[in-house]
Design brief:
Strand content: under 5%
Order of helices and strands: HHHHHHHHHHHHHHH
Distance between the termini: 23 Å
Helix content: over 70%
């Protein structure tokens, strides 16, 4: 019950309060969700990624093993969700929307505090989670945007130009390089980076709240539940299979499996809103998976002790 209560009080309730504030603000002032979306893509998200990578301590061996795990896990989940999409007969924008709700997960503002809670602030497991977060920041801003626009059969060159304007794809190598070379950042520059990165979680959750507030609330219950099951239950099970396949054990295996158990990423909502691709389904998937995660993540944490 301790983990259940902690996840509820430290993750779900604070996130729900921020989302509720976004709903109220939209109802009161009709906030422009497109502006909020662009702030997340071009300012807040790149800042938090840069700060976390710049301040991290990553070894090459951990980086290599974690990336290998991630790519195998990502490929396995991609194949599974594609099978489900074909069985369900999804068409048009629902194809990338369902896919994004499963393969993109909340590896930053949910998974990082969760990692600190379960592993008591262990620097080794935190470095693993930061690598996962890096990939889960890069892929939505590249493949995620491409898949949504490709489904609309628009101008692919225009889509690629859009992707190339996104700061996060440049921020990641710059942060790694500056970290590795120990390049100092002057305080007058680093202080604003801190200010902006600290605002990421609040702005992203307010954006989700604004989207929920603007919806007509036509529940897509079966689709949302299916997405939640794939993300919250199938995801960690596949993660466990991958660590067995790679022969990873001990605390590293536990950290990797836990990283797969978190709810749908806010980035799936931001993409849906920015490119007008099933924003109602995406918002419902994020919100419901966050609520249900208090039960599923607690179960995963309990089962971690059986991973040797």
């Amino acid at each position: 019950m301790g983990y259940f209560t902690h996840i509820l009080l430290s993750n779900v309730i604070p996130l729900t309060i921020m989302i509720a504030i976004g709903v109220v603000l939209y109802r009161a002032f009709k906030l422009d969700i497109k502006t909020l979306s662009k702030l997340n893509f071009y300012l807040f998200s790149p800042s938090v990624v840069f700060k976390m990578l710049y301040e991290s301590t990553l070894s090459l061996s951990v980086l290599g093993q974690t990336l290998l795990f991630f790519f195998i896990f990502f490929a396995a989940m991609y194949i599974l969700v594609e099978i489900v999409i074909r069985i369900r007969g999804y068409k048009g924008g629902m194809v990338p929307a369902v896919r994004n709700s499963v393969i993109f997960y909340n590896s930053a503002n949910y998974a990082i505090p969760l990692n600190q809670l379960v592993f008591v602030g262990d620097a080794f497991t935190m470095s693993i989670q930061i690598i996962i977060m890096m990939m889960q920041s890069l892929l939505p801003n590249t493949y995620g945007i491409y898949s949504v626009n490709a489904q609309k059969k628009g101008d692919i060159r225009k889509t690629m130009r859009t992707i190339m304007t996104l700061p996060v794809i440049y921020i990641i190598p710059i942060a790694f390089l500056m970290n590795g070379l120990h390049v100092p950042i002057p305080a007058p520059i680093y202080t604003p980076i801190n200010y902006v990165s600290n605002a990421f979680i609040a702005t992203a959750l307010l954006t989700l709240g604004v989207q929920l507030g603007s919806m007509k609330w036509k529940f897509q219950l079966s689709d949302v539940i299916l997405s939640n099951v794939l993300r919250l239950l199938v995801g960690p099970a596949v993660g466990f299979g991958v660590v067995l396949l790679l022969g990873i054990d001990g605390v590293m295996a536990q950290a990797l499996v836990l990283s797969c158990a978190v709810p749908t990423s806010l980035s799936s909502v931001l993409i849906a809103v920015e490119y007008d691709n099933e924003p109602e389904f995406s918002s419902q998937a994020v919100f419901s998976s966050t609520i249900f995660s208090i039960f599923t993540v607690t179960l995963v944490i309990y089962l971690l002790k059986f991973i040797g």
